[in-house]
UniProtKB/TrEMBL annotation:
This is ABC transporter ATP-binding protein. Gene3D superfamilies: P-loop containing nucleotide triphosphate hydrolases (3.40.50.300). Residues 52-275 form the ABC transporter domain. InterPro entries: AAA+_ATPase, ABC_transporter-like_ATP-bd, ABC_transporter-like_CS, ABC_transpr_TagH-like, Bact_Polysacc_Export_ATP-bd, P-loop_NTPase. The lineage of its organism: Bacteria, Bacillati, Actinomycetota, Actinomycetes, Kitasatosporales. Keywords: ATP-binding, Nucleotide-binding, Transport. It comes from Streptomyces broussonetiae. GO terms for molecular function: ATP binding.
Length: 309
């Protein structure tokens, strides 16, 4: 990597002693452009005007910008498993895609050491091909040799658990449930040792047993000196697998640090678990209500109020 990691902001997470950086995200903005949000049509004169006034072209032709990631900076190191959390639409998947090189950045730079692999619930496998063929093609697409794929084939099938309920691996993927397909995708990706593995909600679709297996594999991948990024709304999965958490909110990096510290703040923010136990309600005071940061009452406050009635 060309950039000097000293220039990048310091983070409080950690665990890796050798501190070899694998991903550097330096002051990155990512902007989507959505076409066709304006009037769209118009007269030939209006079209000519748009062409002549280039500065106004985007607005006039109905292109709307969505600023999905704003001035985000961090450095990821070998051996780290980093959870990306944040409420819906906060920019987690967008940032992951940009690290994978699938989205351009508007400003700033992303440097990666090694090849990042994005494993998402939408990762492309061929629906009309059997699970077996998809394992072969997926393995080759990730850069494994034919021999390596052959060698690991059975391990992938066993890990996925696809054949636990019958010989499904020789059936086309379109006959799989969404959970089965997600398991196969994860199993293919996890068969390879990755420099940087990016996982987007893949664990959400598997059942409890599969999730445990996957979490164990993520820990293994960390030990094998890779870096794992995990986007998830399941705080338990993040707690069990990650040593560091980045919290994005409205596209901005709100917190970066050790898992427990960040999750504690995040849970207080979302109202999942209030930071402090709520004070005992005074029976006659019905007007004052504890609000969480979104302005909604927390579950606990509500049940205390109900109990007080
Ligand atoms: N293809 C797209 N075109 C335009 N805007 C998009 C596109 N994809 C995402 N966005 C917008 O970018 C912002 C961030 O979206 P993103 O999917 O990265 O959030 P997220 O944190 O992964 O959300 P979730 O937890 O719901 O999956 C949102 O405002 C979303 O509407």
């Amino acid at each position: 990597m060309a950039e000097n990691p000293q220039n990048a902001p310091h983070h409080t997470g950690g665990g890796a002693d050798d501190r070899t950086p694998t991903v550097i995200v330096d002051d990155v903005d990512i902007v989507y452009r959505v076409n066709g949000t304006g009037g769209g049509r118009g007269t030939a004169t209006a079209a000519l005007n748009r062409m002549l006034r280039r500065k106004q072209t985007e607005k006039a032709s109905g292109v709307r910008k969505v600023h999905a990631v704003k001035k985000v900076s961090f450095v990821a190191y070998k051996g780290e498993a980093i959870g990306l959390i944040g409420t819906n639409g906060s920019g987690k998947s967008t940032l992951l895609k940009a690290i994978a090189g699938l989205l351009p950045v508007e400003n700033g730079r992303i440097y990666t050491g090694g090849q990042p692999s994005l494993l998402g619930v939408n990762a492309a496998l061929m629906n009309d091909l059997t699970g077996e063929r998809n394992i072969h093609l997926g393995g080759l697409a990730m850069g494994m040799s034919r021999e390596q794929v052959k060698e690991r084939y059975q391990q992938i099938v066993d890990f996925s658990g696809i054949n636990e309920k019958g010989d499904f691996i020789t059936l086309p993927m379109r006959t799989y449930s969404s959970g089965m397909a997600a398991r196969l995708r994860f199993s293919i990706a996890a068969a390879k040792d990755h420099d940087v593995l990016l996982i987007d909600e893949a664990l959400a679709t598997g059942d409890g047993r599969f999730r445990k297996r996957s979490e164990a594999r993520i820990r293994e991948l960390r030990k094998e000196a890779g870096t794992v990024f995990l986007v998830s709304h399941n705080n338990k999965s993040i707690r069990d697998t990650c040593n560091r958490v980045l919290w994005l909110e409205r596209g901005e990096l709100r917190m970066d640090g050790p898992t427990d510290e960040v999750l504690k703040e995040y849970e207080a923010f979302t109202g999942d678990k209030p930071r402090k136990p709520a004070a005992k309600p005074k029976p006659k005071e019905t007007k004052s209500r504890e609000l969480n940061p979104q302005g909604t009452r927390s579950q606990e406050t509500r049940s205390q109020e109900t109990a007080a009635r």
